[in-house]
Amino acid sequence: MTVPIIDHSGERGPGRRSAAGMLTALAWGLYAWLWLPLFTLLAWVVGVRTAYVQLYLADNAIDPFLLLALPVTAFACGILLIGWAEYNRARFGRHDRRQHRDDIDDRAVQVALGASPLLAAKLRSGRIVTVAVDEDARPVSVTRPGEARDQPP
């Protein structure tokens, strides 16, 4: 049986993980950079260039109302956004709506998943586990991080 997601990041050191992360970020940056000409074309088509020319470059005159209105509008939007966030934090921040769920025993896990007693115990004991299943989607092995993989019976 093949595992659909291969993840060996736990076996690599922090330096190699950081290098891989930086390489991934660099690749995404290059990918985004390749799309910039299309985004520029779309922005011009939509009218961003025309708006910029009309607002800031027409007759080489700067409109004093525009210089005052745009920053005031941006400041007001920021105040509204922060105010709304603080209102929600004050209203909902103290309440924890998550309810504690009762623990289930190994027998319930065995019945629900069709697992062996050993697999049911391992499923309940680990916070993070990798489960291998057979063709009928029944668990055949359970592995915790840093542990050798179980062989199916």
TrEMBL record:
GO biological process: cell adhesion involved in single-species biofilm formation
Protein's UniProt name: Poly-beta-1,6-N-acetyl-D-glucosamine biosynthesis protein PgaD
Coiled-coil parts of chain: none
Keywords assigned by UniProt, alphabetized: Membrane, Transmembrane, Transmembrane helix
Membrane-spanning intervals of the chain: 21-45, 65-87
Keyword Ribonucleoprotein: no
Annotated source species: Luteimonas viscosa
Pfam families with a match to the protein in the record: PgaD
Matching NCBIfam families: PGA_PgaD (TIGR03940)
